[in-house]
Design goal:
With 114 residues, this protein is an all-alpha fold. It has one domain (3-109). Helices cover 84% and strands 0% of the residues. It has four helices and no strands. It has helices at 3-35, 41-66, 70-81, 85-109. Helix 1 (3-35) runs antiparallel to helix 2 (41-66), helix 1 runs antiparallel to helix 4 (85-109) and helix 3 packs antiparallel against helix 4. The mean pLDDT is 88. Pfam families: DUF3817. Its main location: membrane. It comes from Streptomyces pseudovenezuelae. One of its GO terms (cellular component) is plasma membrane. Residues 9-95 form the DUF3817 domain.
């Protein structure tokens, strides 16, 4: 994995958890708006919207650089629209990055898969 691909995956990973948190907070704010006089939906809506757009930009960049299959790319897109999907995306991206580091070190040491 080259440096640009690793950076793209890292950016996607870093924005996935905050995007999921903002989605959950937006849901809470929506409930509070309807049950109390508290209305933070406009602010949380904007925060979540910005994070969601960043997620989409970083998702597209990661998909193109990592050369994911259509299924993998669409899976990360589906995770972005689920309330807790960003947490699952972050965990899977972390595992993928760790696997890439292990593979890179094995190539540097001359270890070949049997």
């Amino acid at each position: 994995m080259d440096l640009k691909t690793a950076s793209a995956l890292r950016r996607l990973r870093l924005v996935s958890a905050p995007e999921a948190i903002s989605f959950l907070l937006l849901l809470v704010c929506s409930v509070l708006k309807r049950t109390t006089d508290f209305n933070a939906v406009p602010v949380m809506g904007m925060v979540h919207g910005v994070l969601f757009i960043l997620y989409l930009i970083f998702w597209l960049d990661a998909w193109m650089r990592a050369k994911w299959s259509a299924g993998t790319g669409i899976w990360f897109l589906v995770l972005s629209v689920l309330p807790t999907g960003g947490f699952f995306a972050e965990r899977r991206l972390k595992r993928e990055a760790e696997d890439a580091v292990i593979a890179s070190r094995a190539r540097q040491e001359g270890v070949v898969n049997a």
